[in-house]
Amino acid sequence: MSALGDVVRQARQAKGWSQRELSARTHMPQAQISRIENADVDPQVSTLIELARALELELQLIPKSALTAVEATVRSTEARSDERASQNLMAELLRAAEQAHAMAPDREDIASLLSSLRDLQPLTPALRARALIGDLKSVQILLHGFLTYPPAERPSHAQPIRDAAQRLKDLRNMLVHAPAGERPAYSLDDED
């Protein structure tokens, strides 16, 4: 039963909702949602249907023989969705960095950040891990701050931007030099 609770919790958190917000949307007590997420109760089907509607999930009975294929499809879809989100974030960062560079072409810290983002862009598909996305989100906050601060205050933000550029370079190097993954001990195609 904990798998069900985990699905409800993950779907709620993906929407950025608290248990209280989900409670208001489903007209269920917040304590009931907590008990479902913690697998302390066996919810009725009507309760599951109401939660599924609110969370934009589909409640279906799947034959056991098809379960593995369905789970693989869901994982593949989630991976593609994460990859698209990474690509969108990277495109937004590049636009913001280019805008910042156009506003202050003499700033070496901005030029370095833009260069680091351009170097990292081809590796965007590898950025699906939440920790790596967190680094990009912090750069996004820095760039937003730079673009919205009055010009007189911008020089005081040079060091955080230089630090961010260095973190992006380190991230790029980590991705480029990461092990390629497990290799099989042998291959049937090899002929020595």
Task: Explain what this protein looks like in three dimensions.
Helix content is 68%, strand content 0%. By secondary structure, the protein is mainly alpha-helical. The longest helix has 40 residues, at 64-103. It is flat. The mean pLDDT is 83.
Write the layout of secondary structure elements.
Blueprint: H1 2-14, H2 19-26, H3 30-37, H4 45-54, H5 64-103, H6 108-120, H7 130-148, H8 158-176
Short characterization:
Helices cover 68% and strands 0% of the residues. The longest helix has 40 residues.
Average pLDDT taken over every residue: 83
β-strand number: 0
Following the backbone from N to C, one meets helices and strands in this order, namely HHHHHHHH
Poorly predicted sequence stretches spanning 5 or more consecutive residues:
none
Report the β-strand fraction as a percent range. Answer: under 5%
Helix content: 55-70%
Q: Treating each run of at least 4 consecutive H or I residues as one helix, how many helices?
A: 8
Give the N-terminus to C-terminus distance in angstroms. 52 Å
Output the radius of gyration: 23 Å
Largest sheet: none
Structural class: mainly alpha
Please tell me what the overall shape is: flat
